[in-house]
Specification:
Helix content of chain A: under 10%
Shape of chain B: globular
Strand content of chain A: over 45%
CATH class of chain A: Mainly Beta
Order of helices and strands of chain B: EEEEEEEEEEE
Helix content of chain B: under 10%
CATH topology of chain A: Immunoglobulin-like
Structural class of chain A: mainly beta
Largest sheet of chain A: 6 strands, mixed
Structural class of chain B: mainly beta
CATH architecture of chain A: Sandwich
Number of domains of chain A: 1
Distance between the termini of chain A: 38 Å
Number of helices of chain A: 0
Shape of chain A: globular
Strand content of chain B: over 45%
Oligomer: heterodimer
CATH superfamily of chain A: Immunoglobulins
Largest interface: A-B, 26 and 26 residues
Number of strands of chain B: 11
Distance between the termini of chain B: 31 Å
Order of helices and strands of chain A: EEEEEEEEEEE
Number of helices of chain B: 0
Chain lengths: 112, 116
């Protein structure tokens, strides 16, 4: 059973608008969460993270929100740019297990 | 460039072949990982090495054999694979324990493996 789920395999957004990528998890013991971005023919690259004790973290155009009661996090990209088109992976880290658990990814396409 | 390189980038092999995937990190990290990414599935952690010792083996079949001769190099030896093993194999590295509490892993570009 997947502990980290990204239920939307794809998302299309117009350039300049907001992109919202969602992620749900089942393990309440995760210590923090990360978003990775992956272009074709490249490995995933770290984008932004949030500690389980926070509810928001912002870095430029990227903001991650964490709702612990709902076991849900989301990544907001504002404004979206064509260069943001990539696969976005949500990941959760357990300090006790010392490993990352990934979701299946969401393909974001930003249309010019 | 993330500081993690993988070779080869593409590999086609038969079910009876023996091949090896290589990963090298130039980041001074002390932990390295092998992941498998199949289409439309999450990245699956296969092996974790910390300080050159294997600390995790997530029930990976014995036809996959990792080797970590030092903290900068990681290999995945492959033998008698099955067609369902065709996937993107990603290597990553990090600092263990993580500084600042965040286990940010740096990934290589992956090896696209096709088993015929």
């Amino acid at each position: 059973d997947q502990q980290v789920k990204q239920n939307s395999p794809s998302l299309s957004v117009q350039e300049g608008r907001i992109s919202i990528l969602n992620c749900d998890y089942t393990n309440s013991m995760f210590d923090y969460f990360l978003w990775y971005k992956k272009y074709p023919a490249e490995g995933p690259t770290f984008l932004i993270s949030i500690s389980s004790i926070k509810d928001k973290n912002e870095d430029g155009r990227f903001t991650v929100f964490l709702n612990k009661s709902a076991k849900h996090l989301s990544l907001h990209i504002v404004p979206s740019q064509p260069g943001d088109s990539a696969v976005y992976f949500c990941a959760a880290f357990s300090g006790s297990a010392r490993q990352l658990t990934f979701g299946s990814g969401t393909q974001l396409t930003v249309l010019p | 460039e993330t500081g993690v390189t993988q070779t080869p980038r593409h590999l086609v092999m038969g079910m009876t072949n023996k091949k090896s995937l290589k990963c090298e990190q130039h980041l001074g990290h002390n932990a390295m990982y092998w992941y498998k990414q199949s289409a439309k599935k999450p990245l699956e952690l296969m092996f974790v090495y910390s300080l050159e010792e294997r600390v995790e083996n997530n029930s990976v079949p014995s036809r996959f054999s990792p080797e970590c001769p030092n903290s900068s190099h990681l290999f995945l030896h492959l033998h008698t694979l099955q067609p369902e093993d065709s996937a993107l194999y990603l290597c990553a590295s990090s600092q263990d324990p993580p500084s600042g509490g965040i286990n940010e892993q740096f990934f290589g570009p992956g090896t696209r493996l096709t088993v015929l």
